[in-house]
Amino acid sequence: QVHLVESGGGLVQPGGSLSLSCAASGFTFSNYWMYWVRQAPGKAGEWVSNINTDGSRSWYAKSVEGRFTISRDNAKNRLYLQLNDLTSDDTAVYYCAARTYGAVSDMRHEYDYWGQGTQVTVSS
Prior knowledge:
The strands form 2 sheets. Strands 2, 4, 5, 6, 9, 10 and 11 form a 7-stranded mixed sheet that branches. This protein has no helices and 11 strands. By secondary structure, the protein is mainly β.
């Protein structure tokens, strides 16, 4: 059975940092492109970042470029997202997702696998 389990969310002040992690199981993690997608209250999903299968390349939404860093550890079946210089606009539930190729999407149904999400709240 496939599982994607995110962790590391929480409440942080503006300008602060968080480290998110996603533990994968039940599929061959190293064969999948991995993604972070977020959804703010009352808003549609937003692709944040993705990384290729061996971790050698990554891409970011303009809204987070330069502040967020995605990485993966295929030996540990883990995906990470480092969030720095956070603002209130980053408040959302952050989901990790997987698909076998590198096309980004904001839509949950377009991914092969999807986690349960972790809440990130940026507030003073």
